[in-house]
Amino acid sequence: MYGTLLSISALLAGVFAMSLGFGLQATLLGVRAGIEGFPVTVTGFIMAIYYAGYIVGSLLSPRLVQTVGHIRVFAALASLASAAALLHAVMVTPPTWVLFRVMTGFCVAGLLVVAESWLNHASTNTNRGSILSVYMVTSLGATALGQLLLNVAPVDGTMLFILVSVLVSVSLVPMALSSRTVPTLQPTARMKIRKLFERSPMGAVGCFSTGLINGSFWGMGAVYAHTAGLDTRGISLFMAMVVLGGIISQWPMGRLSDHVDRRWVLAGLAAATAAASLGIATWGGVSHEIMFTLGWVFGAMAFPLYAISIAHVNDVLDIDDFVPASSALLLLYAMGAVVGPFVGGAAMDAIGAPGLFYFNAAVAIALLAFTLKRLYFGHAVKNADKEDFIGLPRTTAQALEMAAQVVETANREDDPAQP
Question: How far from 262 is each of 149, 257, 307, 396, CA to CA, in Å?
C-alpha cells in the first residue's frame, strides 16, 4: 500500500495542483460574473455549459489517449485548460466565457481520464479501493483549499486567473517527468440510459438528481454567496465549508448504507438536504454563522448522494454490467449538472439569492418522494448481497471502472471457486 502510494506520489501531486486550480476557477468565475454585472440567468448558463464540454470530453478522450498516448493528451489538454483560464481575464464577455467554459470542461474530463487510468494501472486488486480513497481525499481536499485561494488577490483583477493557469500548468510537470510504464487504456463499454433505468430506477434517478443539486451549487454557489452580501473572504469560507462537509460525511454515510437498505440512507440524505437548503434560503441572509453551519450540513448530506446511488446500482446489477453502466451513470449526472445551474440561476433571477436553495430543496424533496415510492413498491437488496461501499468523487468513468474491479476482486476472495 505505502509502496504504491510512494510510486504514485507524483501523480497525486499533479491531481492536487489541478484540483486546486479548477476549484479556485469555479468560484472565481461565479464571483467575477457578479462583479461584471452579468445577468444571473446568463451566469447560470455559463457555469452549466462546462458540463456539456465535460460530457464530450468523457466520450472522446479515451479515443485520443489510445491514438496518441497518455502524456501527449495530458500535455495538450493541460496547456489548453491553462490558456482558457487566462483568456477568461482577457475577454470578459458572456459569449467568450461560454466558449472557454466548454473548453475547460472538455479538458478536465480528458485530464481525469489520463490520471485515473494511470492510477488504475499503478494499483493492484488488493489495494485499489484504498488508493481510490486517497485519490478522492486528495481531489476534494484540494478543491476545498482552492476556495481559500480566492483571498490571495483582488477578484476584479487578473492575478487569480493567472494563478489558476499556473496551477494547471504545474500539474503537467509530475506527469511529464514520470518514469512509470505507460498504461494501456481499454475501451469502456456503454449502456443505454433507458436500459439502466429499467435495471435500477433508483440509481438512475439518484444520479440525475444529484447532478441537479451538486451542479447548481458548483455553478451558482459563489454567485449566491456574493448576492447574499458576503465579501470575498466570506464567499471562500462558505464554499470551503460545504466541500469539507462533503468530504467528512462520505465514509460514515457509505458505511451506514452497507448495513441498512441504501434507499433509506438516500431518503434520509434527501430529506436532510431539503431541510438544509430551506434553512439556507430562509435564514442564510439573517446570519452568516447560520449560513456557514447549514452550508456544512448541506455539503455533508448532498455530496454522498452520488456515491451511494452508484453503490445501489452496484447492488442490483451483475458485475459484468457495472462498467457499461458507469458511463450511463456519469452521463446522467452530467445531464443534471448541465440543467442545474441554469434552472438555479433562473430561480435566483426570479426570487433573489434564496432561489438557488429553494430549487435544491425542490429537487431533494422530489428525490425523497421517488425514494419512498421505491422503498414501498420496489425490491430490497439483502445485506448479504450488497457490495462494499466505495467512496467516489464526481469524476470520470475510469474511477467507476476501478471501483468495479475492486468489487470483482472482493467477490473472488469470497468465492474461491470463481476463476
Answer: 37, 5, 11, 23
